[in-house]
TrEMBL record:
Transmembrane segments: 392-411
Protein name according to UniProt: Squalene cyclase C-terminal domain-containing protein
Recorded GO MF terms: metal ion binding
Annotated ranges, domain Squalene cyclase C-terminal: 53-144
Source species taxonomy: Bacteria, Bacillati, Actinomycetota, Actinomycetes, Kitasatosporales
Keyword Transport: no
Organism of origin: Kitasatospora aureofaciens (Streptomyces aureofaciens)
Amino acid sequence: MLTAARLGAAALSAALLAGVAAGPALADSPSPGATTAAVPDGLYGKGDPTYDGVWRQSLALTALTAAKVTPADSAVGWLTGQQCEDGGWPSYRAAGAACDAKTEDSNATAVAIQALVALGGHQPAVDKGVQWLRANQNADGSWPYNPGNPGDANSTGLAVNALFAARTDPAGVARPGTGGAAGKNAFEGLARFQLGCTAPADQRGAFAYQPDPTGALAPNTLASAQAALAAAGGHLPVATSVHADASPKALACADGSAPATIPHAESGEAVGAYLGAQLAAGDEHLTLTTPGADPKPDYTATAWAALALIQSGHPEQATDAVDWLEGQGDTWTKNGTDAAATASLLMVSQAAHRSTADLTGKLTALGPVPKGGAAAAEATPVKKKGDGMGQFWLIVVGLLIGIGGGLLLSLQRKRNPNL
């Protein structure tokens, strides 16, 4: 009768194992026609990393660390391995490829610094990254995307975020100007993109991406949102207990004596007031307007605006925007398959003290199995590891059922030989 029991258990086990193996295999399969080109081990997300590898990896590591997840060594090692000897990061560098100083960029470097600060234990890499930012700052205090170009508000804001994360005072970061003249510091570089009292009232506090050829500034939604976190003195991840009951204070321009350039002490409140008004006018989200295309919701800008408002002590003014982002989460994150968007939404929810378990699990599933933390167990089935204990108990149950059935049949045959 043991033979029958073993056969029953083996059949049950085979069926269970087949079912367990099929699920992750289907989940890991790319959609028809999708590229599977060289996504490195340890990298979060399955898409082509050429333009956003360091960016999405840095956001993912920052968000997961804030969620008390200990990322896999391979994930951290991939990011540190992208750093060039001079301290900068490119958007992506293929394994074995040499560094090219022209392709290193301030955005990738800034978010990588913030991720390594959040992780802890990477001070030499952080210090080299800060030195790269110092060396590639423009004399006007700003940062360009790639070295040697005019600065922009987005890149300057991200660089200031990195300085704050690395506990480096932006007021003391200035590159000497031509002929040894004193250059502008990082706060002054950021201020050159912000619209002050000479602008129309409804544009004051906004940031332009760059001045136009005449030097005029026009409000830019994403530039305003990304620069706002720096203006508020923050960095990723946003974790602050500061809470002001009032709305952000709009820029005071009672008379013509107000300066055109907004002082740093007033910068965060001024852009917060501008963003708050834009959110209220746009059904609690910001809008992306591209020439030749219909306006559409700007998830990224809305997320940065919410983070900046929370950082500056105005979480109530960010509440509706956070609600909107969470309601649009599946669309923005492509049902949790876009690593950068999923990490960004997770950081917004963390800053707003919302439930984050689902987003943490989705983000964890996009990369290597973490070393520890609440999400480690959740990620295990996706990576086809850790199923052993569950399968073991299912096999035990099958064996017990088979043995019990065999013993029962044996007893019945003893009682009734004709069976």
